[in-house]
Amino acid sequence: MMLNTALEYQTAYLLLGGNLGNREDNLHKAIALIAENIGSVVSISALYETAAWGKTDQPSFLNQAVAVETNFPAIEVLNKALEIEKVLGRVRKDKWGERLIDIDLILYGNEVIDIENKLQVPHPHMQERRFVMAPLAEIAPGIVHPILGKTILDIFENITDKLDAKKL
User: Fold this and answer.
1) Neighbours of 45 (CB within 10 A)
2) Residue of 23, 99, 129, 130 marked catalytic
3) Fewest CB within 10 A of the end CB: N or C in the chain?
4) Catalytic residue flag (residue 130)
5) Per-residue CA distances from 142 to 43, 44, 136, 137 (Å)
6) Is 114 a catalytic residue?
7) Looking at residues 73-86, what average pLDDT do you find?
8) Are 10 and 47 in contact (CB under 8 A)?
């Protein structure tokens, strides 16, 4: 008897960002590599420009949310995203430092995942950051946060983060 080991497709929501080099081009390259290596890109937000968060003495960021239909488990989506960052020249230095590209797994279906020191889904700080919630609310307004029990749009409309995320 043959076991079916294929996972059902899930929608993974990724947040892309960068503040070095040709920011828009880096995001386009990342999306192409996501489509090639992770799954079918089904939705892409507009670009949002935001001042740096956390460490403020650096160039502003461009951010964009992407929805991807994938049959890879969440940890594999994360590993593939980290590999794409490396391919595009990401060097990890400071926690909130400058970067060519950053790809974060924000949501994975309606799953709650906590793999110590590796992966937390939903992203534990997403609801605190306008630069995450603005593009995510654009492509997934009705998705319900699996822990908070509120829609992405509701969370975004009630966010307290004062840092502007300017839609381009």
Assistant:
1) 21
2) 99
3) N
4) no
5) 14, 16, 10, 8
6) no
7) 94
8) no
